[in-house]
């Protein structure tokens, strides 16, 4: 079953001249699929992810996610939708340094307003356990290593049980050992049925996902299914 459908996405920048950055991009993502988006620097990967994340609404075409048409919706609607349905893992973790790992993971859960603070805390601990970080729950984020911080960022992305996890270079700032660790967490999540879409430059990361979309000059030029 398709959980995301992008239809004929076109996007232009006007800086300083009109630049056609996404050209008729269409694809579907199935529930539980682990999808990588690859391509040379500047081909439009991050721009595409930004559209899919509902953060950029200035485009042509249509995006449907979890049965909901997102194109043409108000900012309030999209903010609520993001909180409920999407989890984000970026190249830089953007944790609040003075807050503990647990508090950082809890924040989007408290913001959603669906569960009591006690329930959010229990859920946050469960997510930290899932990614092997429970023993660091009460440490300030600033006292964790880069790899540990990125794992906490993954737990934070999971707190509201998102329909889709979106990653923009989720291992881009990590050394080899931490890259492998974070990738193993993504694979484990995918095996458990989590839908993941990640932009990556890491060919090993892409090769370990279920399907790879390759972009060039704002277009999809190839799609490969990986057999594991
Ligand atoms: N706000 C903007 N205004 C004008 N041009 C932009 C803007 N953001 C990105 N671009 C241009 O759009 C193109 C696509 O950028 P994008 O960041 O999506 O590429 P990318 O494939 O993610 O690259 P990288 O792998 O280096 O992150 C590039 O040529 C970039 O210079």
From TrEMBL:
GO molecular function: ATP binding; ATP hydrolysis activity; transmembrane transporter activity
Taxonomic source organism: Rudanella paleaurantiibacter
Keywords: ATP-binding, Nucleotide-binding, Transport
Similarity-based family: Belongs to the ABC transporter superfamily. Macrolide exporter (TC 3.A.1.122) family.
Pfam families linked to this entry: ABC_tran (PF00005)
Entry-linked InterPro entries: AAA+_ATPase (IPR003593), ABC_transporter-like_ATP-bd (IPR003439), ABC_transporter-like_CS (IPR017871), ABC_transpr_LolD-like (IPR015854), MacB-like_ATP-bd (IPR017911), P-loop_NTPase (IPR027417)
Protein name: ATP-binding cassette domain-containing protein
Signal peptide stretch: none
Chain ranges of the ABC transporter domain: 4-228
SMART domains reported for this sequence: AAA
CDD domains per UniProt: ABC_MJ0796_LolCDE_FtsE
GO CC, any one term: plasma membrane
Superkingdom of source: Bacteria
């Amino acid at each position: 079953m398709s959980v995301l459908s992008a239809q004929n996405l076109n996007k232009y920048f006007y800086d300083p001249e009109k630049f056609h950055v996404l050209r008729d991009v269409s694809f579907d993502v199935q529930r539980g699929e682990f999808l990588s988006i690859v391509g040379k620097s500047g081909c439009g990967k991050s721009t595409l992810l930004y559209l899919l994340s509902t953060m950029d609404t200035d485009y042509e075409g249509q995006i449907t996610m979890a049965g909901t048409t997102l194109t043409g919706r108000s900012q309030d609607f999209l903010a609520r939708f993001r909180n409920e349905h999407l989890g984000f893992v970026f190249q830089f973790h953007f944790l609040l340094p003075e807050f503990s790992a647990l508090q950082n993971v809890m924040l989007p859960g408290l913001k959603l307003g669906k569960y009591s603070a006690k329930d959010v805390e229990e859920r946050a601990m469960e997510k930290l356990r899932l990614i092997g970080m429970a023993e660091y729950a009460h440490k300030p984020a600033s006292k964790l290593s880069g790899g540990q911080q990125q794992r906490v960022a993954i737990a934070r992305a999971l707190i509201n049980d998102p329909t889709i996890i979106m990653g923009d270079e989720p291992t881009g700032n990590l050394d080899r050992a931490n890259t492998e660790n974070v990738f193993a967490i993504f694979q484990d999540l995918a095996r458990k049925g989590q839908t993941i879409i990640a932009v990556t430059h890491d060919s090993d990361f892409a090769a370990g996902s279920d399907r790879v979309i390759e972009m060039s000059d704002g277009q999809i030029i190839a799609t490969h299914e990986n057999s594991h």
